[in-house]
Amino acid sequence: MEPIPVVDHDTVLSTVSPRQAIDRVREAFLRHSRGEWKMPAKVYLESPPDGDFRAMPALGDGVALVKWVTSFPVNPSRGLPVVMGTILANDATTGRPLAIVDARAVTALRTGASAAVASLALARSDARTVGIIGCGLHGAWAARCLAAAGFGPGICSDLDADAAGALAEELGWSSGSLREALAADVIATVTPGSAPIADADDLKPGSHLNALGADGPGKSELTIPAVARCKLFCDEWTQASHGGELHAAIESGAVGRSDVTEIGHVLLGEKPGRATDDEITLFDSTGLAIQDLAIVTALLDALREGRVKVPTVSL
Q1: Rounded CA separation 314/296 (Å)
Q2: 219 is catalytic
Q3: pTM: predicted TM-score of the whole model, two decimal places
């Protein structure tokens, strides 16, 4: 068997630019909606009381992959990241392993890219200002991708003032309060989802929200009335309805299937997005394996073209 390239965290983020990630993730949504890319349901393996493991497979463009990734919210107190894991990519024709890739970097980059894709599709045409609520790894890449998509300046808000200040300084934005961030045209909430950070009255007419933090049952960043006030979109209905920002509102009966549109259908022009400038739009991003596939195929292209050199392993 040929040696297998191993792509580490820093190499992922230095090889695939935010602009390229946005384009690739947009294409992934389109191809999945057209039925060209396949994605079985995400599998959760609970590891109480501290977190869970997730297995996420996808297939498209001659590549099959599975992401084995964690979510352990208590890890920062242990000096470890919340999200860790690996992606194994294989040739879909022969099964030959093509690469082993750091899942943490891919997850952060495709999460930020999805926020930019949704904002370009759903925000007002004159939307510019950004509010980033939660300035950790994923919040930082959401900010970078939104900036790459032409949004900004922005307000960076975090309980950790140093994290907010560092991200704001990097982008030439400002750090500020939760209220200031919620007043922006385009908002990304990237908190652990352990408690809501906004109610219905906190949302500004005409704004667009990307809810990125609630990625499993029991998590939410917005109250049920706040969710119900919005025009609702998601990355994929089944996953979002069982473990995303929409879950609590759906479980309570405040929101139903007919109230939610998958973003891929908006990008294809099959269903409408924002209808008026006063609407508040909400994109529930739960994170899809097809988005991981989008980033990994970009990495594989770079490897084939010799644009990046990485170590290899032999099995």
Answers
A1: 20
A2: no
A3: 0.95
Report residue 160 as tokens: 């950790």
Phi first, then psi, for residue 38 (nearest 5°) are -105, 150
Tokens of 242: 């069982």
Give pLDDT, residue 173: 98
Answer positive or negative: Cα dihedral of 213, 215, 216, 217.
Answer: positive
Residues 5, 11, 15, 21: is their CA dihedral positive or negative? positive
| Region label for 172, one of left (φ > 0), alpha (ψ between -120 and 50) or beta (otherwise) | left
Please give the Cα distance from 99 to 154 (Å, whole number): 36
What is the C-alpha separation between 115 and 122, in angstroms, rounded?
10
Quick one: CA dihedral 99, 104, 107, 108, positive or negative? negative
Q: What is the DSSP string of the chain?
A: ---EEEE-HHHHHHHS-HHHHHHHHHHHHHHHHTT-SB-PPPEEEEETTTEEEEEEEEEETTEEEEEEEEE-TTGGGGTS-S--EEEEEEETTT--EEEEEEHHHHHHHHHHHHHHHHHHHHS-TT---EEEE--SHHHHHHHHHHHHTT---EEEE-SSHHHHHHHHHHHT-EE--HHHHHTSSEEEE-S--SS--B-GGGSPTT-EEEE-S--STT--SB-HHHHHHSEEEES-HHHHHHHSTTHHHHHHTSS-GGGEEEHHHHHTTSS----STTPPEEEE----HHHHHHHHHHHHHHHHTTS----EE--
From the list 38, 42, 67, 204, the catalytic residue is 67
pLDDT tens figures, 95-138: 999 999 999 999 999 999 999 999 999 999 999 999 999 999 99
